[in-house]
Amino acid sequence: MDTNPTALLLDLAASARDLTDQDALQNLLAAGHRAWCEGVADVQSGIRCEAASLSDAQLAERCAAAGAAWEEGTTRGEAVSALAFATWDASPAAMAYTELAERATRFGVSLLGEEFQ
């Protein structure tokens, strides 16, 4: 499997589609969580670099367009983080992780190892 977080999450979600084995789903979910964290960190780093050259007004426009409105009292850093998360959350990789997590949940698997009866 690929080590790029996006490609890896898409591969993991595809691999989980027909799985029912809890151990296998647990392994995929754990790998997916690590890739999700790496992916969101990559997006946050990229957004942080991009936002450095934007004025507050331009950043506010980017936030609004992504559905992460820069509200009164929010710091610039918080706005950048909200923009990064909104950008990541709308990505195919994040959607694939959600699909993987939902599949795992249907078979009693979570990151905490809890079993749902």
Overview of this structure, please?
It is a single chain. The chain is an all-alpha fold. The protein contains five helices and no strands. It is 70% helix and 0% strand. Helix 1 packs parallel to helix 5. The protein is elongated and about 50 Å long. 32% of the residues are buried. The model has no long low-confidence stretch (mean pLDDT 92).
Q: Report the β-strand fraction as a percent range.
A: under 5%
Number of strands: 0
Shape: elongated
Which radius of gyration do the C-alpha atoms yield? 17 Å
Annotation field: number of helices: 5
Mean pLDDT: 92
**H/E element sequence:** HHHHH
Largest sheet: none
Helical residues, percent? over 70%
Distance between the termini: 32 Å
- Any low-confidence stretches, pLDDT <50, length ≥5? none
What is the structural class?
Answer: mainly alpha
Break the fold down into its secondary structure elements and pairings.
Blueprint: H1 5-16, H2 22-51, H3 56-66, H4 76-89, H5 92-106
Helix pairs in contact: 1-2, 1-5, 2-4, 2-5, 3-4
Give a brief rundown of this model.
By secondary structure, the chain is mainly alpha-helical.
Task: Label this structure with key terms.
mainly alpha, single chain
